[in-house]
Design brief:
mainly beta, OB fold (Dihydrolipoamide Acetyltransferase, E2P), 2 domains, 5-stranded mixed beta barrel, two-stranded antiparallel ribbon, 7 strands, 7% helix, elongated
Length: 135
C-alpha cells in the first residue's frame, strides 16, 4: 500500500498537521486500520475524559517550592507548589504522572496550575476514605 505524508486538520484546535508515512506504517504493521487521526499530536497529549493536559514530573524541589513537568512532546512546563491540588506536592516525585491546566502569564512562559496526580496515593491501612480511623 502506498503511504504519503498527509495534511490533516485537528478537530480540537484547528491546526493543520502532517499524518506521517511513519505513523501510517506503524499502524499498518500493528494491524490497525489506516484512519486519519482527528487530533494533532499536541491535542493527543490531553486526557480524553477530562480534557486536561498529561505529563510527568521532571523534578520538584520541596525546599524551593517549584518544579517542572515534562509533556509527551518534550516541552517543559514550570509549576509552583501553590498550583498543586491535594494531596499536595509531597507526592510529586520524579516520573510521577500528573494532569494539569496551563495558565498564560504576562511577560513569562506559561505555567502549570491545578496539578493533580493521575493516580491518587493508596490509603493508609486502617483509615477510611476520609482519613479517619476505620471503625
Amino acid at each position: 500500500m502506498p503511504y504519503r505524508d498527509t495534511p490533516v486538520v485537528c478537530s480540537v484546535c484547528g491546526r493543520t498537521f502532517i499524518w506521517t508515512v511513519t505513523e501510517q506504517r506503524q499502524a499498518a504493521e500493528a494491524g490497525l486500520p489506516l484512519v486519519k487521526p482527528e487530533l494533532c499530536p499536541r491535542d493527543r497529549m490531553r486526557d480524553p475524559l477530562t480534557g486536561r493536559w498529561l505529563g510527568r514530573v521532571k523534578w520538584y524541589s520541596p525546599e524551593k517550592g517549584y518544579g517542572f513537568i515534562i509533556r509527551g512532546d518534550g516541552e517543559e512546563i514550570f509549576f509552583h507548589r501553590s498550583g498543586v491540588l491535594p494531596p499536595g506536592p509531597a507526592y510529586l516525585t520524579e516520573g510521577t504522572p500528573v494532569t494539569f491546566e496551563i495558565e498564560e502569564t504576562v511577560g513569562a512562559k506559561p505555567k502549570a496550575v491545578e496539578v493533580a496526580l493521575v493516580t491518587p496515593p493508596a490509603e493508609e491501612e486502617g483509615t477510611g476514605a476520609d482519613g479517619q480511623a476505620a471503625a
